[in-house]
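Progress note, project year one: complex with manganese (II) ion.
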Amino acid sequence: MDRESVIEAAATHYSENDVLELDHAISVATEAHHGQKRKSGDDYISHPLQVAATLIDWGMDIDTVIAGVLHDTVEDTEIALEQIETLFGRDVAFLVDGVTKVSRARAGMRNLDSYLPQTTDNLSKLLIAVGQDVRVIIIKLADRLHNLMTLSKMPSDKRVKIARESLEVFAPMADRLGMGRVRMQIEELAFSYLDPAEYKKLKNLMKQRLGKSTRKLGYIRQEVEAELKKNDIAFEMDGRVKSIYSLYKKLKKVDGNIDDIYDLMALRIIVESNDDCYKVLGILHALYQPMIARIKDYIAVPKPNGYQSLHTTVLSKNKQIVEFQVRTKTMHEYAERGLAASFHYNEQKSSDSYTKKKPGATSLPPNLQWINELQEVASHLKSGEEIPRDQLFVDLFSDRIFVYSPSGDIYNLPEGALPLDFAYRVHSDIGYHTYSFQVNGAIHSFDKPLKNGDVVEVVTRKNVKPKADWMELVTTSHARDKLRSQLNKQESGGIFASAADILQGKAFRKK
Ligand code: MN
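Model obtained:
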């Protein structure tokens, strides 16, 4: 990537002043990295330039792009953060600082197997940076993507480490942010380095299969197109091919039998409105026999990362199984770009918009609530204090579920979360006075995990207080954090949880 291409790309999206400032940043970074080389032999500056180009492509705001250009300067050159602040302002400096901290945290994460104290401390820094401004992680993803693309130049031991870390940390992170396209790019590259033989084998298998099914799909596609036109529906249709890594994961689930995988290639129909999505679904089901168990309404009930679409798998007249995905343009945009879709080139946002100092003062969608939560937990950490590593993994990388309050408010929790996690998420006072739970209208014990889609009602009693053994009945850092401080307060006030209290707690848990 060269300077001219970056400036040219920027000129079509940002104001003249913004482009001048970007140009200035490129001069500063070029000077700072002067003489440094990438493992490929290229001048080092080619890397931050590529990161900036990627961020422009993702439609990020100019501060993020400038921070992308400067992202390795504080870590790897003589430039100090203060200089960046003087030259480019507080927000750019904040972002560069965040990325620098994440890089250091990453260095710690590579040693996850050997549990060193500084490891979790580094991870805490990562949390703080991500919690304070999600743009930090978006820059990190652009950085990681380019490092993966140039990974073949690295020595093989480093290659495996970086590829594994990408699969275990960065791909789930992209997924969590709803950035489907980036997640897939990271997974494909990382997997091709981790298991080159398997990657090649599956790629060939896919090629053979697709050759056959593309021809057969052509007829179905025409049939559907004609029917949609007859119904006056404006649409675009294309074929989406399953990624090699997701094929690999799916094959493991079906004992390696590729004939059991129905969505190697799916037909994707993009329409104008939600109504049209359901109309198209109706048309498809009138045309072909749907497989009932495979109808998914992710519009009414989005996936926990915010993904929306209708999915259906049908049996064509000549007994071919075809998957369809139906969504609006907005849904499609979100599925591909996720969080990044909420940024628009010229719309300036300051770091303050992403720094959630007060709980509840959030503008992030429900599926991104975890970002605020991490921020809050991190802000309670005293210096030197750490969140246990296992806990961090629950918070950061586990799958997520959605649960609802009886009034329909939606809450995003890690998979395996217990009812008390929910109570504390709603409000720490609710957690404090929890007497029992009703889930989907039925009594639910304290130690039974919640499931996606559960409606959870917390029954509170004024005279109930938290018990010490509740610590075993929460899984999220957030709930743990709140509960611990409540227990400490009780203790310092001389009110110890009595044996009777604990017994009572156990008694109603069995109800
Ligand atoms: Mn970098």
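The first helix runs from residue 3 to 11.
Residues 47, 71-72, 143 surround manganese (II) ion (CB under 6 Å).
No further modelling is planned for this target in the current period.
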